[in-house]
Amino acid sequence: MPARPELVRPDNDAIAAAMSRTLTALALVILALGDGEHTISLVAARTDDTFVRGQAELSAGTDPVRLTVLDEDDYAALRTLLVFALEGSTVRSAVLVATTAAEARPRACAWTVRGGWLHPMDTADLQEALTPCPGGPAVHREAYRAPLLPQITDTDEESPRG
Q1: Strand partners, 102
Q2: What b/e readout covers 132-155, taking b as 16+ CB neighbours within 10 angstroms?
Q3: Which pLDDT score, from 0 to 100, does residue 154 have?
Q4: Any residues with CB less than 8 A from the CB of 12 and at least 6 apart, and which?
Q5: Is the Cβ–Cβ distance between 92 and 52 less than 8 Å?
Q6: Residue 36, Cβ neighbours under 10 Å: how many?
Q7: Kind and range of the H or E element at 124?
Q8: How far apart are CA 140 and CA 106, in angstroms?
Q9: What pLDDT, on the 0 to 100 scale, is given for residue 1?
Q10: Which residues of the chain have pLDDT under 50?
Q11: For residue 118, which phi and psi values (nearest 5 degrees)?
Q12: What is the pTM for the complete model shown?
């Protein structure tokens, strides 16, 4: 008997639907963050009692319109983790944190994954999570409420997690 529960691979239709939601969600997150240098991190607790983490750094601008990803492999890994988080069958919980470089100190907001979509995380919970451990090196970040991301539904998709 295995020490951990086994991960069951979701079906291809569920993965495709989650990929579509992921691409929409990331576009909405980037638009909501606006111009600047951003770090997007995702931490997920899987159903096999392990944790996975992904992080990507990007720069966005509107005049002219541009999106630059520092490392394509990091961004692809983050995107893949978000697909499985939004699909939900192999992930118990997940949080997406966006940190924006700012003059006085960085600002951060976060979304939790529920029902196959990103929902703004409670600011007090985020501030507690961002508080550095005593004696440890860490960047102090100002927490703010993440913008509500409109959920764009795909009429062809019938998701049990929706």
Answers
A1: none
A2: eeeeeeeeebebeebbebeeeeee
A3: 59
A4: none
A5: no
A6: 13
A7: helix 123-130
A8: 7
A9: 47
A10: 1, 155-162
A11: -95, 130
A12: 0.86
Cβ-based neighbours of 84, under 8 Å, separated by 6 or more: 10, 18, 44, 90, 91
CA-to-CA distance for 119 and 85, rounded, in angstroms? Answer: 13
- Tokens read off for 24: 């929409």
Do the beta carbons of residue 37 and residue 101 sit within 8 Å?
Answer: yes
Alpha-carbon distance of 105 to 149, in angstroms, equals 25
- Residue 120's identity, in one-letter code, is P
Largest CA distance in the chain: 58
Query: According to the model, what pLDDT value does residue 146 have?
Result: 96
Residue type for position 32: A
In 3D, which of 87, 76, 97 has the Cα closest to residue 29? Answer: 97
Cα 15 from Cα 84, distance rounded (Å): 7
pLDDT at 107: 94
**Predicted pLDDT at 34:** 94
Per-residue pLDDT, 162: 42
Q: Please choose, from the candidates 5, 86, 12, 84, the residue with its C-alpha nearest in 3D space to the C-alpha of residue 47.
A: 5
